[in-house]
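Input sequence (307 aa), recorded before submission:
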Amino acid sequence: MIQRKPSLFLIGAMKSGTRYLTKLLKSHPSIFMSDPEEPSYFVEQAQLRKVWAEMWDGGYWKEENYLRLFQAAENATILGESSTNYTKLPLITGVPERIHKFDPDARFIYVMRDPVERTISHYWQGVGRGERRSMLDAIKEEPLYCDVSYYAMQLTPFIEKFGRERIHLLTFEELTSYPKETMKDIWKWLEIDSSVDPSGVDQPENVTPELVNMATMFGVPQRLRFLPIMRSIIPRLPPLIRRWGQKGIRLARRQIDPSAIDTSDVIAFLRPIQTTQTEELVQLVGRDFPEWMTLYDKRETRAVSGK
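Predicted structure, token format:
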């Protein structure tokens, strides 16, 4: 049997509706997208184990396991996958070079979101994984929160390696406001039947939940469960011990409504930095982003929930 390989890569940005876009891509009969999402095959193994050990455990960094994800493609003419880890410079490096060696004719889709809103939504995801610092402190101290929103930095290596014409850019805002028109543009770019209607796909999920569980000062159980050694131990524990651990996690966290949190100080900190970075993006890709309302202060913003 001839082993088929992916040639389409949805490379990010995280917290910008990539899961929604993956579902829309799957709605076209000519496209097959891998399941599970985020295989992260082109992330160097040591880096993947450090930044996302759960996916490393899945073993998709092994070529045979990765290619097996596409065996069910049947008559699809375009095989693709979605891994937002591919655009997390400088934490994750070398991805464009590895993909170019795999397929020099690869094509990419990169969806961007108002960088201020994306950064805040990224923080809330961190809270769900044990982040306990205040939003402003965390964003100042952890570079990744802002680096993922530095779209020009993330895109430049792909453009240099593959050329601008092989990268389709869109924004979360246009995707969610005009999904049919946006997907028709993608169908045309991929040179497949552009009459396919993506209706029926639910609106974005997992951008920012309505409630976030934040670890308290006693939140050790919640943080421990993400350690590599605990992921291997927990399934082998007696049911009573596992139930005790789950109870400890529930007691060591409190629920927060992100939309009720005043983010004005965070927005004031991010806006000048990300306005400059967006100016760099405009020069790089030759288009403006008037839909980024929070970045450009086009509406009164007390809190950004990221929904």
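Checked by second reader. Residues 7 and 106 are 5 Å apart (CA to CA).
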